[in-house]
Design a protein that fits this description.
Distance between the termini: 58 Å
CATH topology: N-utilizing Substance Protein B Homolog, Chain A
Number of helices: 8
Number of strands: 0
Number of domains: 1
Structural class: mainly alpha
């Protein structure tokens, strides 16, 4: 399989995360992989590793999305868009084999294929915001995301302090 097809399957596996209990993840993953007839063992290993890497960072990824998707929190996002954003943000931040521009482009393509009418522009906007600030430099993306998360957390702490006084 080519990377685009592998990414699509990883997206589908990530989409399922929202609909099963935390302890059932490995069982669902194995069932999904077993039913892929065209996938080689190498393909399945790649998909499993990336899926597990993304799932292992979901709290951090969701925190970053919440800090950078103005007016949208992950709990309110369309679940298709959320799965696409999670995968793309993982690739932008932690997958050194995937250039930032490729991660964004592939995410927009997934949104066109699986999302709603506004999904491509929403996904592009959230991911593009980070890329524009950093000119597509992976290290700069990491730094900008961390800075925005820190600023967002500081603002939330200030609001909480003022409410308790």
């Amino acid at each position: 399989m080519i990377r685009t097809e592998l990414r699509e399957h990883i997206f589908k596996m990530l989409f399922q995360v929202e609909f099963y209990e935390a302890g059932d993840g490995q069982e669902h993953l194995q069932l999904y992989l077993e039913n892929l007839e065209r996938a080689t063992d190498e393909d399945k290993e790649y998909m499993q590793k990336k899926y597990e890497a993304v799932v292992g960072r979901l709290p951090e990824i969701d925190e970053l999305l919440n800090a950078n998707a103005k007016g949208w929190k992950t709990k309110r996002m369309n679940k298709v868009d959320l799965a696409i954003l999670r995968l793309a943000l993982y690739e932008m931040r932690w997958d050194d084999d995937i250039p930032v521009k490729v991660a964004i482009n592939e995410a927009v393509e997934l949104a066109k294929r699986f999302g709603g009418k506004d999904s491509p522009s929403f996904v592009n906007g959230v991911l593009g915001k980070l890329a524009k600030k950093t000119a597509g430099n992976k290290a700069a993306v990491k730094e900008a995301v961390e800075r925005e998360t820190a600023e967002s957390t500081a603002t939330a702490n200030e609001i909480a302090e003022s409410e308790t006084k």
